[in-house]
Every structure is written in structure tokens, then in C-alpha cells.
Amino acid sequence: MQKKSVLLMVLLISALLILVGCGNKEEPQQVEEKTVPVEVVTAAKTNLNKELEMTGEIIAGTDVSIASKLSGKVAGVYVKTGQFVNQGTVLFELENSSFEIALRTAETNLENAQKNYDRTKQLYKLNAVSQVEFEQAETKLKLQQAQYDSALENYNDTKVTAPITGKVSFIDVDKGEMVSPQMPVAGVVDLNTVKVKLDVSENLVASLKEGQKVSVHVDALGKIIEGKIRSISPKIDKATRAFPVEIAIANPDGEILAGMVSRIKIPTEELKDVIVIPADALLEHNGMKKIYVVEKGTAKERLVKAGVTSIDKVQILEGLAEGEKVIVTGNRLVGDGQKVDVIKTASVAGGEK
Prior knowledge:
This protein is of the alpha+beta class. Among the domains are: about 35-50 and about 270-345, conserved putative lor/sdh protein from methanococcus maripaludis s2 fold (Beta Barrel); about 55-60 and about 190-270, Efflux pump adaptor protein, beta barrel domain (Elongation Factor Tu (Ef-tu), domain 3); about 95-155, Helix Hairpins (Orthogonal Bundle). Helix content is about 25%, strand content about 45%. It contains 4 helices and 20 strands. It has a 6-stranded antiparallel barrel. A 4-stranded antiparallel beta sheet has the order 6-5-3-8.
């Protein structure tokens, strides 16, 4: 009887624990769907330039290699690589003692020849000397003048100066070293304007013209800069079978350096009244091109067919209508049916709303 009472008590306690557990069970919480902030543009019809894209290396507007005009020992070097110099700045100089002596000797000889000429001329006017003697004095004066000019030029050439304003591209000489006229030992480049040389095929060169604006993307700087076609050769290059074209790019801050790689986009044809979106709005996956548009607060995936692409815009041939809102920022964070919060709307031209 006592065992039955204990068993009954255990069963009652177990039942109470089960009831308490059931009463404390929480209802499952519903997870609220995340809303992604996005920026959109309104698809619009506009004109779009069809472009020729080429790659070229930036070169200096002017690049001068410098050698001494004289042979001699270097007495001093006054600049370093990368230093800005004005035209006429002394880069280095040679020991000039022998050239100075030659100049002083030539100066003395010239003074004596001048005095002799002046005296002989006066005597000739008085018929005191012959015409031959006068002509000899005149010839000697001219000879001494030429020797003096040569000595002065040599003396001045012991100072090697910058022929243009720009930056020192290299200085390959030290004090005490010997130099000769056949040895370029310094260079100066003018980067105020830089250029790119391209080879354009004969079927495209006719669509270009001097002064035409082009877009230059400098990879190292990550920026797009405007350039202009400076020249188009009227003659094909026999080696490349293409026409040399030179692009000039203003570089007042000197941030574009010689040797940087650039991608040039040259407008060759204008497409009229086509649907255009920013290039960043177009995504590619498994060979398919797609965009996301906003419909009733959600992102909708659209497969599209793209046409002509410029540096920052792309033509959409199929899959998008004028006036639809296309996600351009945040499009890599959404999926089809994702709730979105439009924080900014702009036009293709860049006007914010």
C-alpha cells in the first residue's frame, strides 16, 4: 500500500512538470525580411557615342637628353632626379680653368687687333698706308673676333644647362667624372602636357579629326581625363599598316607620369535616341547580362541585351523600358524579390532627385 502511494506521488509530480513545461513554451518568432538601401537611376533615351577603345603608353610632351658639348672633368652637379628646373638652370659644370685662360688670351688678342685696325684705318684715310695693309688689319680683326667668340662659347659651355623647363628625368654623372660630347648624362622632360601615340587602322582613321575630344582612362590614377587629337598622319606607317595618331593631354598638376598605361576611347559614331543606363548598373553572371529594377519597393531581376558601351554608360537593346528605375548602387547586395529602400534617384545625366 505504501509503495502504491509513492508511485502515485511520482506520477502526479511528473504530470505537473509536463503541464508547467507546456505552459512556458514560447511562440516561434517571425524573422523580419531585411530591407537593402539602394540608389537608382531612371532609364532614359539619349544620344550615346560609339567609341573606339585603344591602349597606349603615356609619354612626355617633350623629352630631351643632354650631353656636354665639351670633353672634361665634372666640377659640380647641382640637381637631382625628379627636381623641377627652369630653362637655363645649370645642371652641372666642368672644370673651366683652361677655358678661362683661352678666353682671356683671345680677349687680349682681340683688343690688340681692334687697336691695330683703328690705327690702320686712320692712316689709310690719310693715304699713309696701302689698301693691302688696311685689308690685312681688317682680316686680322675678323679672325681675332671669331677666335674670341669661339673661346667665349667654350667657356660658357662648361656650364651645362636645361634646354627646357621641366623635371630632371635622370642625372647620370658625379663630380670628378669625365664626360664627352658623345655621352648623354642628363635628361629633362616637360610633363605639363603629355601625349599618347596610337596606330589607327585605315578603315577608322577617316572618322577622326584633329582637335576632337577623347576620354583617357589612366589606370594608375584610377581616373578619366579629357584629351584631344593633336595630329593625324596623312601617311600610313609601312611597318604597322596603320596611321599614327597623337593624343595630347593637359597635365598641369604633373600627376600623370611618363610610362603610365592609358586606355583611350575615341568617339567614332553617335547613336541617336537610345535607352541608356550607367555601366555600373549592368551585371554579368554565367555569360548572362542582367540588371535589377525597383517595382513596388522590391528588386526585380531582368535579363537584358546590351549594345554599345562607353566608358561609363551602356545601351540597353532589350529587357528595359524608358522610365523604369534601375538599381545602380547596391545592386550586388540584392536578389530577386528583395525589399529595398530607395535613398536616391538620379537621371542618367547625373541629376539627383
